[in-house]
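for the record, two folds in this file. i put them one after another cuz i was lazy. first one right below, seq on top, structure tokens after. the second one comes after a little note so u can tell where it starts
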Amino acid sequence: MRKMIVFNNVTLDGYYTGLDGDMGWAHKFDPEWLEFTNENAKGGGVLAFGRKTYDMMAGYWPTPMAVKNMPAVAEAMNKHPKLVFSRSMNEAKWNNTRLIKGDLVTEASKIKSEPGDDIVILGSGNLISQLAQAKLIDEYQIALTPVVVGKGKSMFEGVDKTNLKLTKSRAFGNGTVVLWYHPA
């Protein structure tokens, strides 16, 4: 069975994005963080998104600017197979993307039970919230960024109390700490 993994940048006050969708605070360009990001991009897996995050990613990673700014990540983002969960989209044009239009929990459960690489959800707070409520998330990789935005969107909106077990951590010189958790 495939694992479903979340990788998200989160502010110190618990938001994956500001109320206006701003994520500028998550973009760190120091050498240590870039090396980590490049290594992460080399990993396998299927990338998964909700519609809003998919639109944002598909609008950036295939561009010459992305290739210039972060060539290793751009190559991986464009190469990896992708899933987009959306009832409102009619087609997904970014290469290697499969559009999933059915009931989220039913479809995600079915995909998890298929053979294949693990599924990594990036961004997509609404998607994460629904899958967490359905107990379908196997691992959370949280990049805790030392910034407070005051108001924003939580990827755990509507999720009942869930105990997590810290399995690994790594601190970076820029103040970010990546925390790996499994449901307890």
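(here's the note) second protein begins now
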Amino acid sequence: MAKLIALYKKPADAAAFDRYYVATHAPLAKKIPGLHSFQVSTGGVATPAGDSPFHQIAILGFDSKQALLDGLGTPEGKATVADLANFAQAGVDVLIFDSKDA
């Protein structure tokens, strides 16, 4: 199994970010071929020490790292990546990795 984690930094207008994410970005991401799970954080993102620099975290699951990379290379994947510039002006860190149950 492979994961893509998007760590969205706190935007200037959180309400506008949330509206756009739900109405536009998430529906785009859900069309990426090979995607089998899509989770987003709710209620804020914290660390054990308190606040964090992140507004939201998205976790996308694929069967393999290659399936993830292949999905990102499709028109749907490219559209999703290109859409980040439309709402994630505060920045987003994207991590891609294989995973297994421990």
